[in-house]
């Protein structure tokens, strides 16, 4: 009789400290003696863009007419030093995701989708594939601590260079690509053996601080003839100081990736316990840029948990020039698609929960190097889906901007926002809704 009743109906009380997930984690650790590795970003609830709301126009502000009045979405990235800055039609860009983590078809699809809407995509740890270069109108080339796949010819083929110092999912940590995903092609590009786990460096081998970074950035400019914008990407931790140092080192664009940011693989404990939320990082970055007098001259790209046009508009209202998406782009391609529900269950997961990107068993053929699984993924169809999603995000952001009376997404400002929790108000430095109170302001 009792086994038909749910645990709640039976009056059983779940511990908030030792909840079901915690118990399962302890049991798993006790059984295996190995820490848990997974992909995706932080899964715990954190103050986020959902804790902010826009103050649409009414009497004291004047809205724009949706169908008749223009609301610009374009952005120029990297005009500070580069001969050829990037001109994008939408501020929603595709974040760096490695070939190795993703299949070659998925990389190609990212290029197709991004190019269709006039935005950029980014390589990743492991180098540039001809498919993604071929399909990407604007391709940013990552220069990482591991130097996997690093090749001066590819640097010259890129449209911009992103020096990666860290990622929001694992600030202070290096990449991880397990043996099951090191196919012959992946191994060849990284000049490492096939089928062996790769843990890439967390520090660049040839510098110990910002002075060395300035020298490195100059070297990269010299070998690419000062043509390409140079980005510096940091995981969000001491963001105010990191952004100041990145600017002093010569960055044209600073990328700040908050702790909700996705990864292909790292320790769960790392994803959930290191870094600061995206929301907390943006005002710090903007403050640093403003104090240096370079806000809007050195562009700020924000990533980490961006899912829709409202998130885009909120990040921009807080002072970002553009955003980057990883996880949402993979979902748009077909990751976690319910059509593979049965197969997710066979590998111990479920559609909407799948995060074992490190295993390379992705039924959707996206986070895998298995030729049979990868063949299921159609780059043309995936690219189309991504382009649709990017269009929707851009139109959603435009809708909000118009409602706030703004003729360009970049005209959104903190004054358009309020917070619905004290934490979010303090982190985002906007007032709690219905008050003029910004907790911590003036400290
Ligand atoms: C599958 C996957 C692979 C990634 N690979 C890289 C990488 O090679 N280099 C890098 O800097 N960041 C990498 N990232 C992080 C993204 O560039 C980006 O910072 C993050 O995904 C943004 O957060 P979001 O996923 O919530 O949009 C990866 C993320 C994912 C999901």
From TrEMBL:
It comes from the Bacteria. GO terms for biological process: glutamate biosynthetic process. Residues 113-133 are annotated as: Disordered. InterPro entries: Aldolase_TIM, GltB, GltB_archl_type, Glu_synthdom. GO terms for molecular function: glutamate synthase activity. Gene3D superfamilies: Aldolase class I. Residues 78-334, 362-406 form the Glutamate synthase domain. Keywords: Oxidoreductase. It holds the Pfam family Glu_synthase. Belongs to the glutamate synthase family. This is Glutamate synthase domain-containing protein. It comes from Gordonia amarae NBRC 15530.
């Amino acid at each position: 009789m009792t086994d038909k009743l749910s645990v709640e109906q039976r009056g059983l009380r779940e511990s908030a400290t030792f909840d079901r997930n915690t118990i399962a984690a302890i049991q798993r650790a006790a059984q295996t003696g190995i820490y848990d590795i997974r992909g995706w970003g932080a899964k715990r609830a954190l103050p986020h863009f959902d804790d902010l709301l826009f103050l649409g126009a009414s009497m004291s502000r004047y809205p724009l007419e949706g169908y008749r009045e223009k609301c610009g979405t374009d952005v120029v990235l990297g005009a500070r030093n580069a001969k050829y800055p990037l001109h994008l039609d939408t501020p929603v860009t595709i974040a760096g995701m490695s070939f190795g983590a993703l299949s070659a078809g998925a990389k190609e699809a990212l290029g197709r989708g991004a190019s269709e809407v006039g935005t950029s995509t980014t390589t990743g740890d492991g180098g540039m594939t001809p498919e993604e270069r071929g399909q990407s109108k604007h391709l940013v080339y990552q220069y990482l601590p591991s130097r996997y796949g690093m090749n001066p010819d590819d640097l010259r083929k890129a449209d911009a260079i992103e020096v990666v110092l860290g990622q929001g999912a694992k600030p202070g940590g290096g990449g991880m690509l397990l043996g099951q995903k090191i196919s012959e092609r992946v191994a060849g590009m990284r000049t490492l053996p096939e089928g062996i786990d790769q843990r890439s460096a967390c520090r660049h081998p040839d510098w110990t601080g910002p002075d060395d970074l300035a020298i490195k950035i100059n070297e990269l400019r010299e070998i690419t003839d000062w043509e390409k914008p140079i980005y510096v990407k940091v995981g969000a931790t001491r963001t105010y100081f990191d952004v100041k140092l990145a600017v002093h080192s010569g960055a044209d664009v600073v990328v700040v990736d908050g702790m909700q940011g996705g990864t292909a693989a790292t320790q769960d404990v790392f994803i959930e316990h290191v870094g600061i939320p995206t929301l907390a990082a943006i005002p710090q970055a903007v403050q640093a840029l403003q104090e240096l007098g370079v806000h809007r001259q050195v562009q700020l790209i924000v990533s980490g948990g961006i899912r829709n046009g409202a998130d885009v508009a909120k990040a921009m209202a807080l002072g970002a020039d553009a955003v980057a998406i990883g996880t949402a782009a993979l979902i748009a391609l077909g990751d976690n698609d319910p059509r593979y529900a049965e197969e997710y269950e066979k590998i111990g997961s479920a559609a909407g929960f799948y995060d074992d990107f490190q295993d390379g068993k992705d039924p959707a053929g996206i986070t895998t190097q298995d030729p049979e699984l990868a063949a299921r993924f159609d780059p043309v169809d995936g690219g189309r889906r991504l382009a649709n999603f990017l269009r929707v995000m851009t139109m959603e952001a435009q809708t909000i901007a118009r409602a706030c009376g703004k003729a360009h997404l970049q005209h959104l400002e903190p004054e358009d926002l309020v917070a619905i929790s004290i934490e979010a108000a303090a982190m985002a430095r906007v007032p709690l809704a219905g008050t003029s109170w910004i907790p911590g302001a003036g400290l």
